[in-house]
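Archive maintenance. Older records in this collection stored only the sequence; we are now back-filling the structure field for every entry so that each record is complete. The fields below show one back-filled record exactly as it appears after the update. Entries are processed alphabetically, and DUF1489 family protein is next in the queue.

ARCHIVE ENTRY
Title: DUF1489 family protein
Organism field: Sphingomonas kaistensis
Length field: 130
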Amino acid sequence: MTKVAVGCRTIESLEKRIATRASGGEMRVVTRMRPKRMAEIVEGGALYWIVKHRLVGCQTILRFEDRTDGRLDIVCADHLLAIPQTPKRGHQGWRYLAHEDAPRPGDNDDSGLSLLPPSLYGRLSALALL
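Back-filled structure field:
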C-alpha cells in the first residue's frame, strides 16, 4: 500500500513523525476505508510512504484493527526501512502497490532519479516528465 506523508518535506521529518507516534514497537495509521485485500496485505505487506512525489521508505504492516469510531487502524512496525527513492504521484488516502512494482531495501537505483534535488524532481514530475 502507498500513502502520502502529508506535511513531511523530507524523509527525516517522516522518521521523526514515526518516532513520535510509535508506542510499544508499533505505529498506528488511521483510515476510514477498509482494504478489501487485508488478508493478503498482512502476510508480508508494507506501507510505502510518499514524500515529495517519491516513495522514500516503508513500514511492515502487522495487522488491521477496528476502532470504536468506525474507522480502522493500520498497525505497522515502528521503524522505517529506507528504499531507493522511486517516482510516485501523490494521491488521497492509500492505494494498492503491486508486489512487483514495490522497491525493496537494498535495491539499486540505476536511473539516477534519486540523486535529483527534491525541488527539481517535483517540477519535472508536475510536468509529467518523470
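Update note: DSSP finds three helices and seven strands in the chain. Strands lie at 2-4, 26-31, 46-51, 54-66, 72-77, 81-87, 94-95.
Entry marked complete.
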